[in-house]
Amino acid sequence: MMASSYNAKEEDGHHSGAANHGGAGAVKSKKPDNTAFKQQRLPAWQPILTAGTVLPAFFVIGLIFIPIGIGLYVSSNNIKEFEIDYTGVDISNPCYVCAKNFSWNSTTPCHCSVNFTLTQPFESNVFMYYGLSNFYQNHRRYVKSRDDSQLNGDHSALAYPSKECEPYRTSEGLPIAPCGAIANSLFNDTLELYYIDLNGTRNEIPLVKKGIAWWTDKHVKFRNPGGNNNLTVAFRGTSKPVNWRKPVYELDSTDLENNGFINEDFIVWMRTAALPTFRKLYRIIQKKSSTTPTLPSGQYILDINYNYPVLSFDGRKRMILSTISWMGGKNPFLGIAYITVGSICFFLGVVLLIIHHKYDTRNNSADIPN
Amino acid sequence: IRVDSRTIYVGHRSSSTNEAFIPPKFCDNRIVSSKYTVWNFLPKNLFEQFRRIANFYFLIIFLVQVIVDTPTSPVTSGLPLFFVITVTAIKQGYEDWLRHKADNEVNKYPVTVLEDGRRIRKESEKIKVGDVVEVEEDKTFPCDLILLQSSRGDDTCFVTTASLDGESNHKTHYTVPDTEKDLESLNATIECEQPQPDLYKFVGRMHIYKTNQEPAVRSLGPENLLLKGATLKNTQKICGVAVYTGMETKMALNYQGKSQKRSAVEKSINAFLLVYLCILVSKALVCTTLKYVWQGKPGQDEPWYNEKTQREKDTNLYLKMFTDFLSFMVLFNFIIPVSMYVTVEMQKFLGSFFITWDKDFFDPEIKEGALVNTSDLNEELGQVEYVFTDKTGTLTQNNMEFIECCIDGFQYKYQDESSELDGLCVPDGPVSKLQQKAGREREELFLRALCLCHTVQVKESSEQGQAHEQRGFIASSPDEVALVKGTVVERSSMYELLHVLNFDPVRRRMSVIVRSKSGETLLFCKGADSSIFPRVKQEEVERIRMHVERNATEGYRTLCVAYKYLSEEEYAQADAGLREARLALQDREQKLMSVYNQVETGMSLIGATAVEDRLQEEAAETMEALQGAGMNVWVLTGDKMETAKSTCYACRLFQRSTELLELTVRTLEDGGRRREERLHELLLDYHKKAVQDAPPVKAGVTRRWSSANQDYGFIIDGATLSMVLNSSSESNASRYKNLFLQICQNCTAVLCCRMAPLQKAQIVKMVKNSKGCPITLSIGDGANDVSMILEAHVGIGIKGKEGRQAVRNSDYAIPKLKHLKKLLLAHGHLYYVRIAHLVQYFFYKNLCFILPQFLYQFFCGYSQQPLYDAAYLTMYNICFTSMPILAYSLLEQHICIEVLLDNATLYRDIAKNAMLRWGLFLYWTLLGVFHGLLFFFGVRFLFSNPALQDNGQVFGNWSYGTIVFTVLVFTVTLKLALDTRHWTWINHFVIWGSLAFYVFFSFFWGGIIWPFLKQQRLYFVFANMLSSVSAWLVIILLILVSLLPEILLVVFRKPRGPNARQIAPVTPLSYKHLKEDD
């Protein structure tokens, strides 16, 4: 209900000709055209916002937002999320030793296992994330330190990486593939999850590594040079990033289609996070049957190949297990915000109604003596 | 060494053969109005463009981006700058090309030069000083010429100077007396002053050498000089010698751009810019400081995953700090937008078309509409506080009609209107006896005086058959036409015209000296009463004064006529004096003046005439509307007080209830004391009355409508004004000025009569520079108004009868006074609202654009990481948000035009730059801050869990920026949509079109792997964002929350505002209004 008046102003361009037809041609050209545009008389819609018109809008917003907010809040609350910090800062932490004794030169990975208990079963697909804190993936020097044409399979960029990749551009005279700081700092902890059933046996939970990266990234943005066959040849003449243990074409020994630049773990890492505390999708635990929960409640062991040092910059590492709803991961913010805004709108609607009502009656009574 | 005069050898013939003839060097006859040549265009134009402070600033930013490693590529600021510079350069280049073309047309124009008896065709640019040039009828003069020979028998030629000063009447010019008919054998030199721009001044001397005779000397004046640019009329051909050529001609010297007037809005923009510059610098400082504080913590500056390059490690710490500071400046520099300048320019340029297009300004009589000479001042039309108007031709029509005359105290009235058919009347027709008849000879003398004492020319009509009806009069003053029309045209051949003592506004009279057939020498003088009365015998004055004063109060223009017999000696003395004065090279004016004054004494008064000058159409309504709009109207006129006063009453500037405060020579002389003392006393007295006793003015409340208050009108005349302004002692002068101003500010209308042109400008200047710097507007139609038109903030010319000088020097020209109402109340009001909103909106939208980027620095280690992609940074101001505001600033009518015209008080709402005050600026700034905070932190909380898709995948930093940017574009556009009160299809198209374009562009930009880009940052980011429900929800939420306070404010403000009641009920009526108009 907008109190608007459609002010259809008449376009009377044809009048001028008729009224003036006695005049000479020169006269006509000097006389301004009588068109609606030139006379600033285009038909116009002139909305006027008043309490009366906005009032219903407030109620409508309130009535729509509050249910959405409740829906969001409930579905966020229904999401099961479990988070465990395995950085190993405390001496009590199983990974303390690994964290303390970290050295870049060690060839054998450091193992540690963390036990944890899920009090509630995770019913639907479970998504496994690794989380890093105080890790500035959004630092400018870091963000730009990549070569997207190299990652897109461009041969010349493979041989001559972009200058932006400095100081991770060449190593021992050979161009680095993939070059740059982002690639160089690829998260290389491996996480494995075991369920301790009631008998005390460790059951490895199958972790799917497909579908963790954006489809378009995996299939268009990231390309291996010369297709996916024989990556060893394709990457000949390049060097592995300094901090890597394996070259890029050997990232996944189990799935040959997941090697080189199209390795999904690598693609996920290359999408730089927005904030210094972030999580990235690591694995997906598919729901097997409709009867049993994906992760039943009980004892679990998280086996970690501890390769990634974070203590030097006071960072933290976490493993997160989470289910997902239609709105994504657990985040009560949206639900609360919607409920708040909806309530405020509704409340304002009521206030406005009262004001409007009072104002109107006063206005009317004032008008009568006139 | 600069010589005061130049010597010209006519036809390059040296005066004496024995002297070595060295032709003096003068410039050639080429006119160069163009600024550039092909070679210097680029450097010169670029230099001039970068002299503008804004362009220079953006150039610096661009250079910083090129030199220093900055977060955004140089393209982001280089591209818009390049665009602006290119467009301006093309525009200026085109204008200069046009000038070149025009120059060439003039310079290559073929002319005929007489050389050694032969007629040679030459290009105009090859004329040299001293050449004898032949010009035919209807051709323009190629340079400034001294007229030597005319094909007309009487040694005159006719000229129109329409292209020089706009006066289309024919002016008579004379050949140098006594020059030989045979130009070939003419041996003469001309000595004249160095070129000077005054079109109406010229002094020179011509020495004519004849064999075996003493050289004859003839004086040269402006009547001998034919100006370049003027056109020969009514004369078959003339010959003249070139005295000034090329850039030294008077036309070229007059060709100069008017001084730039700057509007109040522009000053506000500059002030706001300064604030934003401070914000920018402080943001950059804060970030730089925090960056180094943060880096001081161990492990943060260079973690193992993000090592610096060798070069970065090597750079000096302080240099690094400095480049960091510059980088932050570059990152945040979008807060001061290049595009605002472009948009403001475009708005002004395009907006001014609506004035020219307005058919309400079209006058069927002169078949012309309004003219816009500068588009920089559109919004100033909405800010006018003082209106200075000329009376004659502006308030009145300057269309003279003979009303009556009195001879020797007897009144004669013009009655027979039908006899006016052909503008000629039989002697007894118009002048019928009313009372008693004066003596026959007195009557005849009076009529004869009127007939002789004028400069009226009977126009020669080329077709004989029509001559009878089409006989018109051309004269230098419209008064004279009326008078001559009203009286007999006798054969002036009976008299020999000896001298014309020209009219000028200082003397306010003119005389002729004639010799009748009988040999008597007579002087007839005609002029304003104040200038005639002191010069005639006092006993004659009284009986005529009564009539003159009565006529004046009725609003007629009066002229008094006097005559005097000159004895032989007297004439001889006068003749000698006049000739000598005319020959003088220096101070000719003063010398002439003193001779004039000497001659015009002791005359006897014959009578007076009254000519009516009708009020302009709707003059009263217009004045009332202007006063209703809160403007102070001052009438500045050269006319006498009574006439001007009656005009003021007729225009309703003075009401019957208005108490008039007079400060004129008469009131000063009343007390019988010294004028100075009396002035002092009166000023204090009036001040007490009008200022101190007046109740304090309530801000914003219309003073004029409260009937309880006494209205005051103030009248001052030129003589008193100069006493006020140029008081003998310094301290008094400033004190009087203050008192005077304060009194005037408290009066509803001020009338300044008996003003010289320069005094008009003085008054405007005084008010302009008074406390509060009020915006002034001058409106006038004649050459005497030019000074005040140029002086005022806004100068309006009326396309009246007194030539076109006012129009040429004005900022806007309108055909009639009544158009001023619409120009100010409708156009001015709308332009002001539009541009004020444009400016505020621009600052707002760039603040909430850059604030999230600033806040992001706190989360990315102060590393200058941009939040938005480079494409978004560049396109935001150019494409996504520029068109809606441009459309708004061209089409918005927050109140419709008819309502604005009907309610003049609405003009007060925007007075004193109301929409660009600091309060409102603060409001817009806070709004921008609020929106910026909301956008950033809303998305920040959403990203506390970046898993936003239903397949568990996460979003990165570019998704973050894109969400913020999407919210930003939508909010900023919808905010404008909320402010738009007048939705034409263009607004709809542009607003929804911009949003659609943004979405389309984002898909397109993210849909392709761009071959030449280093980074594919946004690849499918936008599409992925839209696939996330959470992103949708947060976008909707944030847009709504940002606009909610706006909507609330609008709702709460509207019904309580003072205008709501007036506007709301009238708006639906506007349709009816329109119908009635047609």
Topology of this protein?
The complex is a heterodimer of chains A (370) and B (1078).
Chain A: E1 3-7, H1 13-19, H2 25-30, E2 44-48, H3 51-78, E3 81-85, H4 96-100, E4 110-118, E5 126-133, H5 140-143, H6 148-151, H7 155-159, E6 170-171, E7 174-175, H8 181-184, E8 190-196, E9 202-204, H9 215-221, H10 231-234, H11 264-270, E10 278-285, E11 298-306, E12 316-322, H12 332-367
Antiparallel strand pairs in A: 1-2, 3-12, 4-11, 5-10, 5-12, 6-7, 8-9, 8-11
Chain B: E1 5-9, H1 41-50, H2 53-67, H3 74-107, E2 110-115, E3 118-123, E4 132-136, E5 144-150, E6 156-161, H4 162-165, E7 167-174, E8 188-193, E9 204-208, E10 216-220, E11 225-226, E12 231-233, E13 237-244, H5 250-254, H6 264-296, H7 310-314, H8 317-332, H9 338-351, H10 353-357, E14 371-372, E15 386-390, H11 391-395, E16 396-407, E17 410-414, E18 431-433, H12 440-452, E19 457-458, H13 467-470, E20 473-474, H14 478-486, E21 496-504, E22 509-515, E23 521-527, H15 529-532, H16 538-553, E24 556-566, H17 568-583, H18 588-599, E25 604-615, H19 619-628, E26 632-636, H20 641-650, E27 659-663, H21 665-670, H22 675-692, E28 712-717, H23 718-725, H24 730-745, E29 749-753, H25 757-768, E30 776-780, H26 786-791, E31 794-798, H27 805-809, E32 812-814, H28 819-856, H29 870-880, H30 882-891, H31 897-902, H32 918-942, H33 957-979, H34 985-1007, H35 1021-1026, H36 1029-1053, H37 1060-1066, H38 1070-1077
